[in-house]
């Protein structure tokens, strides 16, 4: 698969560079934009970013391995992030995660992101999402779901299963490692 | 009857209030900015003259505003440390990384009232000669990042941001920068590294105090979202009026995030120190008490990094008597005024003003295991005591919570925590240790009993295995 960044995206990224007196500063924003477009940060995306910003690929690669939100593998179309931290745990987030994992045939003890073979779902346990007053919370792609009940979780699953899978043909994978963990 | 006092939250939950510029302007938006720009020089009694910018900076100092991000440091003092002689540009960064477990107040402002933050930032930039500022927003808030970008575009089109703002001759540009899921980006020097496009490894202080050597090694101000919003209200009301809110040395209002075992978790804005911890938990205007049949066990009073308080504790606090003399008085946990100084007096901190309530159904061992896992996951890995110690704490508490504990685990956990705190580059080391030290100290019986019970259970299961410890 050849790597090519569409012109409008490249124009947007060129504009982003102007936000900073030092080009390197734009790297996180580049990685976000490329991950949004391609679904993950490939080796080519790292090299492309480095070339654009006048960096060595390692300067960019070390960001991908440090920041938990960046992925080196394609993920499911519906990315379910269940909050693991205290207030959500008190409100039953462990059971929620178990419910998601059991229904999808994933390991309910793994912390790292896991993707279903059909590429439809990725389930991940994440740390506090800054919405503890409406625990337990689940971030589904960009949408925050609050006070998530077992029924609400079912609904997330049934809506996600209607969508076309993104990472087709993949076996469950562990995603990129988190921050030094 | 204790009540909320809504300054920052005044409009944002009103029906029909939207995050766009038109709505903000209908509610008096950007009037404080105009007022700030129209500030006239001030003559001081000693013959000195303050420039308009110095007047606003002095007013922020006089207002008593303390940082709402965690440390509670005087905002005006912080601004006064900025190196203004270096000839380098001065930067301002809004810390919108909001990731301290229990905290969800900045989220409300960012999603529902972005212009309030932007106005506070423009005033703060102007007062500090800042021409370029950033909002560092946590990666998991993509919608808020987009809202902020929209709001900035509106503000730019209306002449509040950009070149020659409101015809004043001042240029101020603000950009949004997204983090990517690492808690340590909330620590201000880690944040700066991250904004420079690097791993968020906190810098060692000294010499890297942001006020002198911050972003791109230039003088830099880092303030929390809520802190910057307060600047707008200080300009609006005047420093003296603002300082009448709250209590002496703990002025103004503050948004408290309340979660855990209460009937009405949520965010509540109070006058600092005018509402007690007990009222926040039990009053019907706030937490509304615990679930039926439950009693209070513990309170985490200022975000997950603050030291835990135990139900029934009584603290000796300094109080000024009628004769003006300071005396020590006994204050019970639930009577603690919720402010910076009282919580510090109680041996903990109000931190990010996030209260997590635990009732008598909760295991302190499991609670600590949950928090320790957070810190193990979030250590940036630069310092050995933190990187290794946080992991050991997580493993130790996990073992104790899952039936593999030992009697000596309580002492073991404290020992590790003691060897982290004070031996690291950034305050994350304390953040990871304090919960452990306070949980184990205050709930020692529970930790030791759990370890002993695990040992006994495992010994009876397999006598041979227990010898191998
Ligand atoms: C480990 C750690 C995490 C922090 N996280 C945050 C955060 O998420 N948001 C925040 O505003 N401040 C956070 N802080 C505090 C900042 O370092 C800094 O003190 C604050 O942004 C200053 O703003 P203020 O003076 O307006 O409070 C954190 C500090 C530490 C040590
Ligand atoms: S104390 Fe921990 S988080 Fe802070 S710099 Fe050291 S390793 Fe990183
Ligand atoms: S603990 Fe889940 S959102 Fe904070």
How many helices of chain B does DSSP assign? 18
Distance between the termini of chain B: 57 Å
Order of helices and strands of chain A: HHHHEHHEEEEH
Low-confidence stretches of chain A: 168-181
Q: Structural class of the secondary elements of chain B?
A: alpha/beta
The CATH superfamily of the largest domain in chain A turns out to be Glutaredoxin
Average per-residue pLDDT of chain A, rounded, comes to 91
A few lines on this structure:
The complex is a heterodimer of chains A (181) and B (469). Helix content of chain A is 40%, strand content 11%.
What is the secondary structure topology, with strand pairs?
The complex is a heterodimer of chains A (181) and B (469).
Chain A: H1 7-17, H2 27-38, H3 43-53, H4 57-66, E1 78-83, H5 86-90, H6 93-104, E2 114-115, E3 121-126, E4 138-140, E5 143-145, H7 150-161
Parallel strand pairs in A: 1-3
Antiparallel strand pairs in A: 1-4, 2-3, 4-5
Helix pairs in contact in A: 2-3, 3-4, 6-7
Chain B: H1 21-26, H2 31-37, E1 42-43, E2 49-50, H3 52-62, H4 75-80, E3 90-96, H5 106-112, H6 114-127, E4 130-137, H7 142-157, E5 173-178, H8 188-195, E6 220-224, H9 225-237, H10 239-244, E7 246-247, E8 250-251, E9 253-260, E10 266-271, H11 277-282, E11 296-300, E12 309-310, E13 314-320, E14 326-332, H12 340-345, E15 354-359, H13 364-378, H14 384-401, H15 409-420, H16 428-442, H17 444-461, H18 463-467
Parallel strand pairs in B: 3-4, 3-6, 4-5, 9-15
Antiparallel strand pairs in B: 1-2, 7-8, 9-10, 11-12, 11-15, 13-14
The structure holds flavin mononucleotide (FMN), iron/sulfur cluster and FE2/S2 (inorganic) cluster.
Iron/sulfur cluster binds next to helix 14 and helix 16 of chain B.
């Amino acid at each position: 698969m050849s790597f090519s960044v569409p012109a409008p995206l490249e124009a947007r990224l060129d504009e982003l560079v102007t936000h900073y007196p030092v080009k390197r500063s734009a790297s996180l924003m580049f990685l976000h934009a490329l991950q949004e477009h391609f679904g993950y940060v490939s080796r080519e995306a790292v090299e492309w970013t480095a070339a654009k910003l006048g960096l060595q690929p390692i300067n960019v690669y070390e960001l991908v391995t440090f920041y938990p939100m960046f992925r080196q593998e394609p993920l499911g179309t519906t990315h379910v992030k269940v909050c693991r931290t205290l207030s959500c745990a008190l409100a039953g987030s462990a059971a929620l995660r178990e419910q998601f994992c059991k229904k999808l045939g994933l390991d309910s003890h793994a912390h790292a992101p896991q993707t279903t073979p059909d590429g439809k779902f990725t389930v991940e346990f994440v740390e506090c999402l800054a919405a503890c007053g409406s625990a337990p919370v689940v971030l589904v792609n960009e949408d925050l779901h609050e006070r998530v009940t077992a029924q609400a979780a079912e609904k997330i699953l049934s809506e996600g299963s209607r969508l076309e899978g993104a990472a087709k043909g993949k076996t469950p994978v562990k995603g990129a490692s988190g921050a030094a963990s | 009857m204790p009540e909320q006092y809504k300054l920052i939250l005044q409009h944002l939950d009103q029906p029909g209030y939207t995050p766009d510029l038109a709505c903000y302007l209908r509610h008096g938006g950007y009037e404080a900015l105009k007022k700030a720009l129209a500030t006239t020089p001030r003559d001081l009694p000693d013959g000195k003259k303050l420039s308009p910018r110095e007047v606003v900076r002095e007013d922020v100092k006089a207002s008593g505003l303390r940082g709402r991000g965690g440390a509670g440091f005087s905002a005006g003092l912080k601004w006064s440390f900025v190196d203004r002689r270096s000839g380098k540009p001065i930067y301002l960064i809004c810390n919108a990384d909001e990731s301290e477990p229990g905290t969800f107040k900045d989220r409300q402002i960012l999603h529902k009232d972005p212009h309030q933050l932007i106005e506070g930032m423009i005033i703060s930039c102007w007062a500090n000669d800042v021409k370029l500022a950033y909002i560092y927003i946590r990666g998991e808030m993509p919608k808020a990042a987009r809202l902020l970008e929209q709001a900035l575009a509106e503000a730019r089109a209306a002449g509040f941001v950009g070149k020659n703002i409101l015809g004043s001759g001042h240029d101020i540009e603000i950009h949004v920068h997204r983090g990517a899921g690492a808690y340590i980006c909330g620590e201000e020097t880690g944040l700066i590294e991250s904004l420079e496009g690097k791993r968020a490894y906190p810098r060692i202080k000294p010499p890297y105090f942001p006020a002198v050597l911050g972003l791109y090694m230039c003088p830099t101000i880092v303030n929390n979202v809520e802190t910057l919003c307060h600047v707008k209200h200080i300009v609006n009301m005047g420093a003296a009026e603002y300082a009448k809110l709250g209590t002496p040395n703990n002025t103004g209002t503050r948004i408290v995030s309340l979660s855990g075992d209460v009937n009405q978790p949520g965010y509540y804005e109070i006058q600092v120190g005018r509402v007690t911890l007990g009222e926040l938990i039990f009053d019907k205007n706030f937490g509304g008490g615990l679930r039926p049949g439950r009693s209070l066990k513990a309170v985490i009073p200022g975000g997950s990094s603050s030291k835990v308080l135990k139900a029934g504790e009584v603290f000796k606090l300094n109080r000024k008597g009628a004769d003006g003399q300071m005396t020590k008085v006994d204050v019970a946990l639930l009577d603690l005024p919720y402010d910076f100084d009282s919580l510090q007096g109680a041996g903990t901190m109000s931190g990010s003003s996030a209260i997590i309530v635990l009732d008598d159904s909760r295991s302190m061992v499991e609670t600590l295991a949950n928090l320790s896992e957070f810190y193990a996951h979030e250590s940036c890995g630069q310092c050995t005591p933190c990187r290794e110690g946080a992991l050991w704490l997580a493993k130790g508490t996990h073992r104790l919570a899952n039936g593999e504990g030992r009697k000596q685990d309580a002492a073991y956990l404290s020992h590790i925590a003691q060897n982290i705190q004070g031996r690291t580059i950034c305050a994350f080391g304390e953040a990871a240790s304090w919960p452990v030290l306070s949980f184990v100290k205050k709930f020692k019986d529970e930790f030791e009993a759990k370890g002993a019970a695990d040992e006994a259970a495992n010994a009876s299961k397999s006598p041979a295995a227990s010898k191998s410890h």
